[in-house]
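User: Is it possible to get a 3D structure for a protein together with its bound compound? The compound here is flavin-adenine dinucleotide. I've pasted both below.
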Amino acid sequence: MESYDVIVIGAGMVGAAIAYGLAGQEKRVLVLDGSDTDYRAAKANFGLVWVQGKGYGFPPYQRLSRLASAQWPGFADQLTHETGMALDYERRGGLHFCLGEDEWNQRDARMRAWHAQAPDEPPCTEMLDRAHLESLLPGAALGPEVAGACLGGLDGHVNPLKLLAALHKGLMLRGATLLSGQAATRIEPLAGGGFAVTAGGRRHESARIVIAAGLGSGDLGRMVGLDVPLRPQRGQVLVTERLAPLLPLPASGVRQTAEGTVMIGLTQEEVGYDLSTTASAAARMSTKALRVLPDLARARLVRHWSCLRIMTPDGCPVYAESPDHPGAFITLCHSGVTLASFHAGSLATSLGGAALGDGLDSFHHRRFDVSTIA
Ligand SMILES: Cc1cc2nc3c(=O)[nH]c(=O)nc-3n(C[C@H](O)[C@H](O)[C@H](O)COP(=O)(O)OP(=O)(O)OC[C@H]3O[C@@H](n4cnc5c(N)ncnc54)[C@H](O)[C@@H]3O)c2cc1C
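Assistant: Yes, that's possible. Here is the predicted structure of the complex:
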């Protein structure tokens, strides 16, 4: 039995980024991952690296998203340099289209309130009227209802499958061990400190553990006193055939990938663990996309999938250390692509020093504890 500095449980978007960051600090890192039959948001998401509107009503999350966006270019360069893998990452701004004057006014008011919630942060969005928007999107014929858009200067996008593959390659190049098809089934705190994790019939020991198993994290967390409420939320996505360039900037709900396909989404459905795709959602999403970009009517749809987001009660991340078993950490979020730079950077650096780091207190799941709130 080998012993490690850290065992990271889960090699999805969150666990892989943390393990990549930890391995860069010369830590002995073991990453245990489940199998393709698990719920894997990392393999089915939209690929936005998004800030505008994030953390509405919870300013620490707004600040964290801004920090992650600022760290993304350096993170992407380093990952590409180390692995030789292109990520198709761009940060040239992102759009939130507004259909009609009412929607434009509502978005304007919401973004003003969002900025007011973090008054120390510089403005990062701009409301564009239709004429201004058209000048930004010369190749796009906008639908007649488009009144304008909110442009987020910190927003961007990436190919999430390439990102995940690069993180896996990068963490192994840095010396971490990745065991796939080895779901952790048991975590035992050891008497003298540290943990034993059982996976695939084998027992591995480490000084610290990081639970980053997406929707599999609930059961694992409870084994070390980390009882985090989480639920699945279904998102459905449509993908067109490859098209000539028509949308140079990503938008919430529609983005053209580097290969030319157009992704259209997203639903937010409370249907438990049901992974079905539905014709009604496809109709809703494509109708909305056509109101923005009517030319999409000529495109053939080639894929339609659904996947489950990892949602906490307020939709914001959870970063916590077990009070009962110090050295056991849990990390959960529904924007693992956006936050990948932070997970691989500042968070991994803090975890390498055996702490969560300053400023993450407000992300503890005790905020959901009714008695604490009362
Ligand atoms: C439709 C959709 C669109 C999205 N769009 C975006 C977006 O545009 N931008 C963005 O930032 N985020 C987006 N997300 C969210 C993003 O995909 C997730 O935040 C991210 O994938 C979460 O990473 P994770 O590692 O926590 O979970 P996952 O990526 O789901 O990975 C969990 C991993 O843990 C493993 N596992 C489970 N149980 C165990 C166990 N017992 N032992 C070992 N391993 C285990 C699984 O096999 C899996 O590999 C989207 C999500 C969905 C569903």
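Residues 94-151 form one domain. The chain has three domains: 3-82+160-229+314-373, 94-151, 231-311.
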